[in-house]
Amino acid sequence: MSAPLIVSIDLLADHRDLIPVVGELRWREWGHPPEKLEWWVDITGREAGRDDLPVTWVAIDPDRQVVGAVGLGQFDIEERRDRSPWVLGMIVEAQYRGQGIGGKLMKALEAWAYHYGYSQAWVASDGAVDFYQKCGWELAEIISRSSGETMSILSKSLKTNKE
After folding, report:
1. Homologous superfamily in CATH for domain 8-117
2. Which helix (H) or strand (E) holds 129?
3. What is each CA distance from 78 to 13, 29, 81, in whole angstroms?
4. Residue 54 in contact with residue 62, Cβ under 8 Å?
5. Could you tell me the pTM of the whole model?
6. What was the pLDDT predicted at 163?
7. Is 122 within 8 Å of 86 (Cβ atoms)?
8. Other C-beta atoms lying within 10 Å of the C-beta of residue 94
9. 99-116 confidence digits (pLDDT tens)
């Protein structure tokens, strides 16, 4: 078994040249029609804030390769616009999953949100519930959308990472 990959977790705003790379990573994972690669890159650029929502973190390996990213935004799903903020676009390159990179991204997101005065955050997931629960998130509800899709909504009370 190889040693875990060492990554730095930084704001995407500090590495704006990586926006197209993060956009492509997300597009490869979720980019089904009608969205094109350009759409994903544009959205990723708009989510690369620093002191205001939306904001995105990127996991970068020692060779300066993007291996993951996660965002935090005002809203995610229309059915729950009464809650904020929401985790957006959590992704880790498939070959690096299970090495703690996603957890590090989530810790950075949670620390930022707490620092900026958010006491709770939300995430909608249709397949990564176990990951979020490992990160300390709790299932709040399951909603059925008009499309027939079911979506799990999880939340977490935010505290400092020192606890």
Report:
1. Gcn5-related N-acetyltransferase (GNAT) (3.40.630.30)
2. helix 129-134
3. 26, 22, 6
4. no
5. 0.90
6. 45
7. yes
8. 9
9. 999 999 999 999 999 999
